[in-house]
Amino acid sequence: MCKQAHTTACWGEVMRQDARLSVSGWMNTLHLDTGPDWRGGQAQALLLVRGLLARGHGAEIVAVRDTPLARRAQDEGIRVHAVCPNFRRISMARMLRGLQRNQSFDIIHVHEPHALTAAWLAGAHRRASLIASRRVAYPLSAGRAAMARYLAVRRIIAVSRFVDASIVTSGLDPSRIAVVHDGVPVPPPLVAAQHAAAHARWGVGKNEFLLGCVGYLLPEKGQEVLLHALALLKERFPQCRLLLAGRGPYRAHLEGMARDLRIADRIVFTGFVEDVDSVYAALDLFLFPSLAEPLGSSLLDAMAHGLPVIAVASGGVPEILEDGKNGRMLLVGKPEAFAGAISRLLQNPPEAAIMGAAGRATVLSRFSDDHMVGGTLAVYSQTLSEEHSQQKR
User: Fold this and answer.
1) Residue 313 is part of which domain span?
2) pLDDT tens digits, residue range 134-148?
3) How far apart are the C-alpha atoms of 14 and 325, rounded to whole Å?
4) What is the pLDDT of residues 112-124, one digit of tens each?
5) What pTM does this model have?
6) Using CA atoms, how far apart are residues 157 and 195, in angstroms rounded to an integer?
7) What's the CA gap between 36 and 122, in Å, rounded?
8) Is the pLDDT of residue 336 over 70?
């Protein structure tokens, strides 16, 4: 029995090496994510798999059963291997061992740290090229086991140069890191009737001006700053309302703050929105107060929808925005700074429209989902090519 298992593993390795002889050709990829929620990482994973399949490559997903990623992928007809929510890393490691015994994958791409742990426990890097996405900007853990996971990775894909710099400070070889920015779909231009209908959906009057932010409700996301900014504007611009789309543990605090500032009637808390495009369609101005954001996929989504945007110049944001051209970039994330920038755009609609159009053009030229898929494929091809060259030596 042991002999048969060893023979099968060796034959699988031969098949995998043979499949790599032309690294510019077809690739079989497997994507791992243990995330329970629908956030930027899960959205990017699904966009990537969708794009790989559209280009003729193999792409399957291992995800936790009944999570938004698993459900959405299954609804699109993507092959999903669902693991148990309990002990999800162990469950995923077991699933991965079984999959690698029966299938040959060129690339195993883990999209968050817990998935990397599962892949490392399964020894996935011994039978495929292991790629890890890095979406957070704090240094890698210095612990021996934690660092061992990343040493098993062939390439780390950082979502921004800001994240890249944080990885380098952890001591990893910079040549093992590749920067591939997030990408987002670019929808058709919005027409006035769609905007009016989206306004109405959220109870916003046709003569009201809707500010908005999309993101998980956490202190570091900065939504508190927006409430204070709206309080500063409420007398001068009584037609302004603020929509906060997303769920999170900070919601009760924000609702209490809105009451204390006497602006509760001007705030729309939507909770989690499945069809988030309906939020962007309703907005007149997008606000991004997050500090040290690795990149900001919701900011890119807003720009893709042609919305004028105001963001804080921190984290990966300067890699996206050029102040005064495709958006307003604030040096400090203070309520007064946001209030001043909002006031300027409210009083100058042509300037806001020009910025919105420039932002959409920026996404089309550099941050579309197609650019992200192409950049990721280039990383895959380079990695496989290097491995093949090493095997020939």
Assistant:
1) 192-367
2) 998 887 877 777 788
3) 53
4) 999 999 999 999 9
5) 0.88
6) 36
7) 21
8) yes
Which residues have C-beta within 8 Å of that of residue 374, sequence separation ≥ 6? none
191 C-beta neighbours (distance < 10 Å), count: 10
Which CATH number is 330's domain given?
A: 3.40.50.2000
Closest residue by Cα to residue 178 from 377, 314, 315, 369: 377
Is the residue at 327 inside a domain? yes
Q: Is 174 left (phi over 0), alpha (psi -120 to 50) or beta?
A: alpha
Alpha carbons 184 and 126: distance in angstroms, whole number: 33
Q: What residue has token string 């890249």?
A: 164
Q: pLDDT tens, 200-240? A: 999 998 899 999 999 999 999 999 999 999 999 999 999 99
Return the pLDDT at 170: 85
The CA angle 306-310-312, to the nearest 5 degrees, is 135
Please give the Cα distance from 131 to 379 (Å, whole number).
9
283-305 pLDDT, tens digit each:
999 999 998 789 999 999 999 99
Rounded Cα distance between 108 and 93, Å, is 12
* Token pair for 327: 């958006």
What is the chain's Cα-based Rg?
23
Same domain, residue pair 222 and 349: yes
Q: Are 292 and 317 in contact (CB under 8 A)?
A: no
Task: Please indicate, yes or no, if residue 11 is contained in any of the structural domains.
Answer: no
Q: For residues 128 and 223, state if they share a domain.
A: no
- pLDDT above 70 (res 17): no
Classify each residue of 85-114 as buried b or exposed e, where b means 16 or more C-beta atoms within 10 Å of its C-beta: eeebbebbbbbbeebbeeebbbbbbbbbbb
Q: What are phi and psi of 213, to 5 degrees?
A: -145, 140
In-domain check, residue 33: yes
Rounded to whole angstroms, the maximal C-alpha distance in the chain is: 80
For residues 370 and 111, give the distance between their C-alpha atoms in angstroms, rounded to a whole number.
18
Torsion of CA 347, 349, 350, 352, to 10 degrees: 100
Q: Quote the number of domains for the chain.
A: 2
- What are the tokens at 326? 């495709």
